[in-house]
Design a protein that fits this description.
The complex is a heterodimer of chains A (245) and B (197).
Chain A lengths: L3 E10 L2 E11 L3 E6 L5 H8 L7 E6 L2 E2 L4 H7 E4 L12 H7 L8 H14 L15 H13 L5 E5 L7 H12 L4 E5 L11 E6 L2 E6 L1 H14 L4 H10 L4
Parallel strand pairs in A: 3-8, 3-9, 6-7, 7-8
Antiparallel strand pairs in A: 1-2, 1-4, 4-5, 9-10
Chain B lengths: L10 H4 L2 H17 L3 H18 L3 H26 L1 H24 L2 H12 L8 H31 L7 H24 L5
The chains are: A alpha/beta (245), B mainly alpha (197).
């Protein structure tokens, strides 16, 4: 597995510290990040492939500094967003998956082979020639996964990949995520998605408040979530929203 | 262009996109310059032959023509009254033939092949124009159409739900804001997919 290292990382938006002096070394296969809205979990995830750069500290992926070697890092780190609709670039399912490989400059036969394999992996072969924007929400999220993983990244970061989906489609996407060989970092509010993970990090107000196996970390998060009702959280939440476009 | 490609293995499907684009441009220009109803009638036979060769379902081709029929329903009577039947028929045939030819092209050519063709055409100008970037811009422009359509439909629904049917501002402001946010999200997704260089 790759090594994702956060060295005393901080990041502020609108004068509010969204990530506050976080140090972590992530080497496990499947890692979950949980926390309330505005806790800094999405910002932390976005830092792994350089969508957000830290104000202080460093983020390293396999020794590469994300702030300085962003392009190399992004070849290793795939990212799946909450809303699959905004990730689809090309009109048909096959074309969208193939789009990722345009910059890889592969021979057409090899590119086709990889596209076919990615479509088959996510059960999209039958939908290959369908207009991508007419797929269901679950199918769009699977397309987003196929489009990212066709590039063979070593790490996949998924920011709340099941939040916009109904229960059936969320289970479907979760099943596919669970079967991935790639190192996986998932930000999620749906805690059952993280039950079988190797490690879960609980964030609160920009800091790591628990870092343990799911059996320990998830109950801890539930306790925090049940007891927390602070007006200041709204401002923190709004500040983290600034990390998203 | 937006997801209308119909897969197949006809001669027209297999022809290179660049050749098809060249033929499309040449035929549409020739049709546009033609004034004889008789010759345009002959062109109808030729275009029908091309459509048959492409083996695309008639209903898909018809769907491409429907928006044009509204235009013809207004333009043809006006031409009939002002310029006579010959010009009315000529204008109608020119438009119909051009749209059918463009429809055959769209139905038989994936967008990626069109982008590759555009990049090939731009290659001689690579000192001045980044062909990859132009290809990406074309892809995004095509992608933006259904995305904007969805945004407008959702905003119209929201306006109706809040009883503000008459307000143009209640459509324009949220559509612009959401379109700009969507553009930002799309840009971020492109960066995440390694298209930031």
């Amino acid at each position: 597995m790759s090594a994702i290292v956060f060295e005393r990382v901080s990041r502020s938006f609108d004068g509010r510290r969204v990530v506050d002096d976080v140090s972590l070394e992530l080497v496990e296969h499947r890692i979950g990040i949980v926390g309330a809205n505005g806790s800094g979990k999405s910002t932390l995830a976005r830092m792994i492939n350089g969508l957000v750069e830290p104000d202080a500290g460093r983020v390293l992926v396999d020794g590469l500094d994300v702030a300085k070697q962003g392009r190399e890092v992004r070849r290793r780190v795939g990212f799946v967003f909450t809303n699959a609709d905004t990730q689809i670039v090309m009109p048909t399912v096959r074309e969208d998956v193939a789009f990722t490989l345009r910059r890889h400059r592969l021979a057409p036969a090899e590119a086709n082979e990889r596209v076919d394999a990615a479509l088959a992996r996510f059960g999209l072969t039958e939908l290959a020639e369908r207009p991508a924007h007419r797929l269901s929400g679950g199918q769009k999220q699977l397309l987003a996964l196929a489009s990212v993983l066709v590039g063979h990244p070593a790490i996949l970061v998924a920011d709340e990949p099941t939040t916009l989906l109904d229960a059936r489609n969320a289970r479907r996407v979760a099943r596919h995520l669970a079967g991935l060989d790639e190192q996986l970092v998932v930000v999620s509010h749906q805690l059952e998605l993280l039950d079988d993970f190797d490690r879960v990090i609980v964030m609160e107000r920009g800091r790591v408040v628990c870092d343990d196996v799911p059996a320990v970390a998830l109950p801890r998060y539930r306790d925090i979530d049940a007891g927390d009702d602070d007006a200041d959280d709204d401002a923190q939440d709004a500040a983290e929203e600034r990390s998203r476009p | 262009m937006i997801g209308v490609f119909h897969p197949g293995d006809s001669l027209v499907h297999r022809a290179p996109a660049l050749l098809k684009l060249g033929l499309l441009a040449a035929l549409v220009t020739a049709i546009a310059l033609q004034h004889s109803v008789l010759v345009l009638g002959g062109a109808c036979v030729l275009v029908a032959g091309i459509a048959a060769l492409a083996r695309v379902p008639f209903r898909l081709l018809w769907r491409q023509l429907v928006p044009l029929l509204w235009l013809l329903a207004i333009a043809v009577p006006v031409q009939l009254l002002l310029a006579g039947w010959e010009l009315a028929v000529t204008v109608a045939l020119r438009l119909l033939l051009a749209v059918v030819l463009a429809g055959v092209y769209s139905l038989t050519t994936p967008v990626t092949e069109t982008l590759d063709a555009a990049q090939t055409l731009l290659r001689p100008f690579r000192r001045w124009i980044d062909a990859d970037r132009v290809g990406l811009a074309l892809a995004l422009a095509i992608r933006a159409i259904p995305l904007l359509g969805e945004i407008v439909a959702e905003v119209l629904d929201a306006r109706r739900a809040r009883g503000a049917e008459g307000s143009i501002r209640a459509v324009a402001v949220p559509v612009i804001v959401r379109a700009l946010r969507t553009a930002d999200h799309l840009g971020e997704a492109l960066v995440a997919r390694g298209l930031d260089d």
